[in-house]
Design goal:
alpha+beta; globular; single chain; 19% strand; 2 domains; four-stranded antiparallel sheet; Jelly Rolls; Arc Repressor Mutant, subunit A
Length: 266
């Protein structure tokens, strides 16, 4: 795979940021923090942006993007061209499951490009595209059969990964599939390996760990972004899961090489 990177960087959008390009090359565009809205012409949906939203935009794509004024987007981008177009190109959009790991790859790409090491930056971009293709393949492989309960559970899991801050009621969701709550819960654990409550908490804690290590947002704000109205409940559950208070975890994360690299480029 031959790749030429035209530009790459990491930027915090201004509160009044508005983006309406017609792309002339490929653009890897990943949200690390903040919130906003995004639309690609020809797509049937609007995207409500949050940490982990990852797009591979194509030449000719016309986009429309806005950021929330009270939570501006922090994004990494890489404009590039293929020398020889590969047979498989990642899908337009995915929600990154392991955002800290993926952010580390993006950070290396941007650092190499900023240091003028374009060939090394292109190598990191190849690794990232490979990971995106692998994730797309897993998503396709794991699509459930047309069992309404299993479909509902897979949709619920995807929604939780994308919007962990929402309030979820397993009673209401199970009622929509015309099955009892206990049966729905058993199938959920069979598919996920975790109970509904543990799965939701795990996703929320992973988002909290990322936001604490990669942003300077206040703990109360992070609690809200993770679906907690009570900061004290959030702090108790976070310490129960990680062994650290939220601020203790943030201090600890700043000692890591990855967090130090992020902080140098905020």
């Amino acid at each position: 795979m031959d790749i030429k990177i035209n530009s790459a960087g990491k930027v915090r959008c201004a509160p009044d940021w508005h983006w309406e390009p017609r792309l002339i090359d490929y653009d890897l565009w990943v949200v690390l923090d903040g919130a906003g809205d995004f639309y690609v012409e020809g797509e049937s949906r609007n995207y409500r942006l949050g940490p982990g939203d990852c797009f591979l935009l194509r030449p000719g794509d016309k986009c429309l993007g806005d950021t929330d004024t009270d939570s501006p987007l922090l994004v990494v981008y890489a404009h590039f061209e293929f020398g020889n177009k590969p047979e498989i190109i990642p899908a337009l959009h995915r929600k990154i499951g392991n955002l800290p790991l993926f952010s580390g790859l993006l950070e290396r790409l941007v650092l190499r490009y900023m240091d003028g090491k374009n060939l090394e930056a292109a190598d990191w971009l190849k690794v990232i595209l490979h990971e995106m293709n692998a994730q797309d393949a897993l998503v396709e492989k794991s699509k459930p059969e047309q069992d309404p309960i299993r479909c509902a559970i897979e949709n619920l899991k995807a929604e939780i990964l994308e919007y962990p801050e929402k309030k979820y009621s397993i009673k209401e969701i199970s009622a929509q599939t015309f099955c009892c709550r206990d049966h729905f819960s058993r199938i959920f654990k069979e598919i996920s390996g975790l109970s509904f409550r543990d799965f939701l908490m795990s996703v929320r804690m992973e988002r909290a760990k990322y936001l604490l290590s990669a942003t300077e947002s206040r703990v109360g704000r992070i609690a809200s972004l993770c679906g907690y109205r009570d900061i004290y409940l959030f702090s108790r559950q976070f310490k129960l899961k990680t062994g650290f208070s939220p601020l203790g975890f943030r201090r600890r994360s700043k000692d890591s090489v990855f967090s130090s690299a992020l902080n140098r480029h905020h």
